[in-house]
Design brief:
Elements lengths: L5 H8 L3 H15 L27 E3 L5 E3 L12 E3 L3 H10 L2 E5 L9 H4 L3 E6 L6 H10 L21 E5 L12 E5 L16 E3 L12 E6 L1 H14 L3 E5 L5 H11 L4 E7 L9 H15 L3 E5 L7 H13 L3 E4 L1 H4 L15 H16 L2
Parallel strand pairs: 9-10, 9-11, 11-12, 12-13
Antiparallel strand pairs: 1-8, 2-3, 4-5, 5-7, 6-7
C-alpha cells in the first residue's frame, strides 16, 4: 500500500498495531529537522552517505555518537583535529570542494565557542594558493549566507541550508577575510558541564562517505574502459574521484599521465591499463606496473586484470606483480567479465551493466586499501 497508505503497508509487514505506531513515530523523529527548518527538504531515501552532494537536503543522525579525528592533511598546519564522527564526511567534502583547510575543529570544553566544544563547528581558511572569494565566500553563499545577514549569521536573518546552524564570516570580529570562516552544523547540543559529550543528534547533508573507495581522493588513469566507468565512479564517489581516461591508451603512455596528474591530496591511485598492451610482451607491462607503484609512493595502488583474446600472459604478469607489491589491490576483471551480459560484441568493451559492475568492483578494491 505504500506510499498511499503507510499504515496498511507497515501492518502488512508485521500484523501489530503497536509495531506500526513505533515505526511511524521513529520515522517522524528522524525526519524532523528541528526549529526554523523546512521539513520538505528532508531526504532519507538512499541513506546519508554516497552519491551526489545535496546541500538543500538534511537528515538527523544519531549514531555513532562519538568524536573522530580529521586527517592531518586537511589541517591548516598539518594537525589532526577532532570532530563529531557523524559530520566528518560533510566536513571533508567542504574542505576538498571549496579548497579550504581546517584551523579549528573540536576545542577544549572551556572554549568560548560551545559549538567547537561539541565538535559540530569548523573554522576554516583558504588552502595555500587559493583566495578568499573562490573558497570561503563561495562556501558562505552556497550555505545561504549573504552580506546583508552577515552581522547575524544565523536564522532567521540568514536563509541557511537545513543542516547548517550558523555561518560567521563577514561582519564578525575575527572572522572573514584575513582570518577564517566559521560554519556550525545543527545539533542537540547542551552547552552544559565541564566535559562535553557528543550531541544526541546532528543534522547532516548527504555527502560521499570516506569509507567508500578508500580514505581520500582517488586518481584514475585509464583507457576506454575507464571512459565507460567514469559516470558510475563519479555517481558513487562524487568530487573525490578524478578520472583521466583516453581510448587506446597503453600502460607506457599512462605512466607519463600518472606522473603529471598526481597530487598531494590523492590517497588512492587506480592504474587501469593493460588492455592495449602487446600480449607478446608481458614483461613490459610488468615493468610499467612496477614504475606506477613507484610513482604512487605511499598511496594505495589498484590494478585490474584484462579481458581480451590472448590476455593470459598479461594477466600472469599482473598477478605476479600484485603478489610481490605492497599496498596494492587487484580487481579481477577477467574473471568477472565471463558473466553473461557484461561484454559488448567485441568481447573487450563492456555494456552499460558491465561498466557499472566494473566500477563497483574497483570501488570495493579501493575500500580494501
Amino acid at each position: 500500500g505504500a506510499p498511499g497508505d503507510w499504515y496498511a503497508a507497515i501492518f502488512a509487514y508485521n500484523h501489530a498495531d503497536w509495531y506500526v505506531a513505533e515505526i511511524l513515530a521513529g520515522a517522524e523523529a528522524f525526519g524532523d529537522l528541528g526549529p526554523g527548518a523546512d521539513a520538505t527538504t528532508v531526504e532519507c531515501a538512499g541513506g546519508l552517505a554516497g552519491g551526489p552532494v545535496d546541500l538543500s537536503a538534511a537528515v538527523r543522525v544519531y549514531e555513532p555518537r562519538a568524536y573522530a579525528t580529521v586527517p592531518g592533511r586537511w589541517g591548516a598546519y598539518g594537525q589532526g583535529e577532532r570532530f563529531d564522527a557523524r559530520l566528518v564526511d560533510n566536513l571533508v567534502y567542504v574542505l576538498q570542494h571549496y579548497h579550504l583547510r581546517l584551523t579549528q575543529g573540536r576545542s577544549d570544553p572551556g572554549s568560548p565557542s560551545k559549538t567547537h566544544g561539541h565538535g559540530t563547528a569548523a573554522d576554516m581558511a583558504p588552502a595555500p594558493g587559493y583566495g578568499w572569494d573562490e573558497t570561503a565566500l563561495r562556501l558562505a553563499h552556497d550555505l545561504g549566507w549573504t552580506r546583508a545577514c552577515g552581522s547575524s549569521g544565523e536564522r532567521p536573518a540568514c536563509e541557511l541550508v537545513p543542516a547548517i546552524a550558523n555561518v560567521y564570516y563577514d561582519g564578525f570580529e575575527g572572522h572573514g577575510e584575513g582570518n577564517h570562516i566559521h560554519v556550525g552544523w545543527q545539533c542537540a547540543c547542551t552547552y552544559a558541564g565541564d566535559t562535553l559529550a557528543p550531541a544526541e543528534w546532528v543534522m547532516a547533508f548527504p555527502s560521499p562517505s570516506r569509507a567508500e573507495g578508500g580514505a581520500g581522493e582517488v586518481l584514475v588513469v585509464g583507457d576506454s574502459l575507464s571512459v565507460g566507468m567514469r559516470p558510475y565512479l563519479e555517481a558513487r564517489l562524487g568530487s573525490r574521484v578524478e578520472v583521466d581516461a583516453e581510448r587506446s591508451r597503453s600502460s607506457s603512455a599512462g605512466l607519463g599521465v600518472l606522473e603529471g596528474r598526481l597530487d598531494a591530496d590523492d590517497e588512492v591511485v587506480v592504474f587501469d591499463l593493460g588492455t592495449n598492451d602487446d600480449a607478446g610482451r608481458p614483461a613490459a607491462l610488468a615493468e610499467n606496473l612496477r614504475r606506477a607503484r613507484e610513482l604512487a609512493g605511499e598511496r594505495c595502488l589498484v590494478v585490474a586484470t584484462v579481458n581480451k583474446r590472448g590476455a593470459g600472459p598479461l594477466n600472469r604478469a599482473i598477478r605476479g606483480f600484485v603478489a610481490q607489491a605492497s599496498d596494492t589491490e587487484l580487481y579481477d576483471w577477467h574473471a568477472v567479465a565471463q558473466r553473461s551480459g557484461l561484454l559488448g560484441a567485441d568481447g573487450v568493451h563492456a555494456t552499460a551493466a558491465g561498466y557499472r559492475e566494473r566500477a563497483e568492483g574497483e570501488i570495493e578494491a579501493m575500500a580494501a586499501c
